[in-house]
Amino acid sequence: MTHTVHMNDKPTLHFFCGKAGSGKTTVASRLAQDHNAVLISEDIWLARLFGDQMQSFDDYIRVSRKLKAAVGPLVVDLLTVGQSVVLDFQANTRAGRGWFRSLFEQAGAGHVLHVLDTPDQACLARIARRNVERPEGSHHLTEEDFMHVSSYFQAPEEAEGFKLEIHST
Asked: What global pTM score does this model have?
């Protein structure tokens, strides 16, 4: 399906809050198609640019910061010229969501924070499948890894003022 961008359409930044295995990448791909938006996937960019440097969660944090420093201005430029963007990056902490806010506010664009409400057992089942299938950008995660990463998870609160779309599975 082709979506024609009209001059009245406000470019929108779509981004995601959901635990590992919640379905963020699947929803991101669908949204990019539905909205004729540019899709930028953190996992794929990190694997291509820093794959050999990511051995631990701390490594991920370090290289993710580098990637955001490079991708952020691109996203602002795309939004500024009227192109919607789907950022398949996680916005799983209140502090982390500040980066996304800075992008859409700087560009004067709209935004939607997509919240994936997926039970932990479903996330773990998807992670197990992903560990076998190994799509590009995926990382092998154990249940212990999932629990560690999930310990940082903070669901968005109304006071943060984001336009939310909830996806329940």
From this structure: 0.86
pLDDT above 70: percentage of residues in the chain? 93
Q: Which residue has the tokens 């929108």?
A: 12
Tell which wins on pLDDT, 52 or 86.
86
Give tens-digit pLDDT for 66-84.
Answer: 999 999 999 999 999 999 9
Q: Collect all residues with Cβ–Cβ distance below 8 Å to 150 and sequence separation of at least 6.
A: 19, 20, 120
CA distances from residue 54 to 9, 51, 96 in whole angstroms, order as listed? 39, 6, 20
Do 88 and 33 form a contact (C-beta atoms < 8 A)?
Answer: no
Q: What is the largest CA-CA distance in the chain?
A: 48
- What CATH number is attached to the domain comprising 42? 3.40.50.300
Residue 9 lies in a domain: no
Query: Is residue 41 a part of any domain in this protein?
Result: yes
Asked, for residue 15, whether it belongs to a domain, the answer is no
Collect all residues with Cβ–Cβ distance below 8 Å to 108 and sequence separation of at least 6: 79, 80
- Which residue range forms the structural domain that includes residue 56? 23-168
> How many independent structural domains does the chain possess?
1
What the block records as the tokens of 25 is: 């990448």
